[in-house]
Amino acid sequence: MNEAQAVVKRIQQALEYEPRVNLHRYPIKISVMQGAVVIEGEVGDIAAKKLALEAAGAIEGTRGVVDRLRVVPSERRGDGAIRDSFANFLLNANELRNCTIRVATNGGARTLRDAPPDGGGTIDFAVKDGAITLDGSVISLSHKRIAGVLAWWTPGCCDVVNSLDVVPQEDDTDYEVIDAVRLVLEMDPFVQPEQIDVKCSNYVVTLEGHVRSADERRRAELDAWCVFAVDRVVNKLELLG
Question: Could you identify which of 21, 25, 67, 77 might form a hypothetical disulfide with 156, taking C-beta atoms 3.0 to 4.6 angstroms apart as the criterion?
């Protein structure tokens, strides 16, 4: 067994021990190309995607991870339907109301909304094979994170590449992450955020408090996973008696 094969085997073993990844239901292909690990396939949700990538990157001998994982969408939809739904999310988000919104089409970029020059920035997006790509620049990390979460929430979306720049640059902190997660929970109509406490340490988010149902507990956790730069979510939410 050469070194590349040994790395692949160690990653496979690590993923076997991660229940959220569930290799038996969602097989993942792992290979090594020019020293980098390539991990591809479908996973059940964004938590499984982030955990699989983290596990692969932590294995001794890994010199970079190429992410080709996609999340199984809540429903299979064409790129046009995904594009329309995501555009609607962006245009109706109060937090992004001062942003210019542009969509890439076969004929070039189309402006959906023009914002003033001193507005919240410009969000350019494209949809290809179910994946949403975000480009442009916004004025805060919160804007970047909200746009990314809305992309993950879009029915049919299977991946999000959030390449939005923040101008001027902004230092990221645990408090920034906490504010973003709280805002996302408030945006989710199926979650009551009033009884949820959010904590964060080094991009690990902990949720504590009470929820009305197991579905709300799961939704709140996935909302936190959708936030850009969150590496792990510890769900300590309890069901109301």
Answer: 77
Domain spans in the chain, listed from the N-terminal domain onward: 3-71, 79-166, 174-239
To the question of pTM greater than 0.85 for the whole model, the response is yes
How many angstroms separate the CA atoms of 38 and 53, rounded?
10
Looking at domain 3-71, which CATH architecture does it have? 2-Layer Sandwich (3.30)
Minimal CA–CA distance to 52: which of 33, 32, 30, 35? 30
What architecture (CATH level 2) is domain 174-239?
A: 2-Layer Sandwich (3.30)
